[in-house]
């Protein structure tokens, strides 16, 4: 146990929190069992370490960070380990990559029953397994989703500011007023292109080769998170990877499911399942027409964020595609986004029509349409600079 406390202290001494994640203030930390879902690269490990650093003195040994990458737990599990931790006065156990441990749900449940005064906060993949939604664990555990950096979080990290998140209503109705609190401090448009290229995944801070690191994370997400969670045989891995690439390079935003099935050598039904898995893995966003939901065919498929577009070197990377991808990625967490009747148009929350377009483009549209315009720094009336939608979380 001493060795684990020493490792914990090392992490506390070397963890730098240059930007505080918005999710930190959204969690009810009183729950005994809390799960943090997230795709690889969005900062799950750093999130746990940030929580520990903000709330516990490492010298008191009340909190302990452990990772399921440690082979110790593959051999012994966590139940008896948690008991030893509690016996020594431990109160909060932070477990990283919980899903890598065999029978991890059963072990968490056993800890929950045995140690009523222990709180466990764990991270897991964004891809749920087939049994998870109806499991006993889901009834007693509060799950939260950690996403990549918003443009707001990226801007705060780059400039040292502390801009707050804004509601969609504020951005649509009061964007001119919001500008007065932002523009005197920073020129957001000067940072926006960097965000689109590499700002979504926090590991850009580590000064590594970002694209290579992202490609490595993407491969791990498919090879481990999707295949393991969905219990897909390894021989089908190339099909899923090829499907993702075909979606990235397609010149058509609406997927031709039958053609995709033929190209990767599988059935139409399997392609639809793969699309759902890729969406859960945060590789793509499926956008439906109003009233439609999965398993109906989506009206549009976009990569989950613009960093993925650059990593895959999609030849379909015109400005319009890039900014529509950013727009959908900014809204999908807390808002319903449907494809509108025309290209570039979206229906948000079934009530608000938004057109994504360049600042110079004239578009005939109903009077109640709002325009998310790129290459625009300051908006007026129904014209809103698209970067401001990056302040939604």
Give me some keywords for this one:
single chain; 393 residues; alpha/beta; Rossmann fold; Arc Repressor Mutant, subunit A; 2 domains; seven-stranded mixed sheet; 16 helices; 41% helix
List the helices and strands and how they pair.
Layout (H helix, E strand, L loop, with lengths): L1 H13 L18 E5 L6 H12 L7 E5 L3 H6 L2 H9 L4 E5 L7 H11 L4 E6 L11 H5 L1 E4 L5 H9 L8 H6 L1 H8 L6 H10 L11 H21 L6 H13 L7 H8 L3 H13 L3 E6 L10 E4 L2 H6 L7 H13 L5 E3 L5 E4 L3 E7 L11 E5 L8 E3 L8
Parallel strand pairs: 1-4, 1-5, 2-3, 3-4, 6-8, 10-11, 11-12
Antiparallel strand pairs: 6-7, 8-9, 9-10
Helix pairs in contact: 13-14
Ends distance? 38 Å
Average pLDDT taken over every residue: 94
CATH architecture of the largest domain: Orthogonal Bundle
Strand content: 5-15%
CATH topology of the largest domain: Arc Repressor Mutant, subunit A
| CATH homology group of the largest domain | Winged helix-like DNA-binding domain superfamily/Winged helix DNA-binding domain
Give unreliable regions as ranges.
none
The backbone outline, from C-alpha atoms, is globular
Number of helices: 16
Q: Number of DSSP strands?
A: 12
Radius of gyration: 22 Å
Please state the structural category. Answer: alpha/beta
**Helix percentage:** 40-55%
CATH class assignment of the largest domain: Mainly Alpha
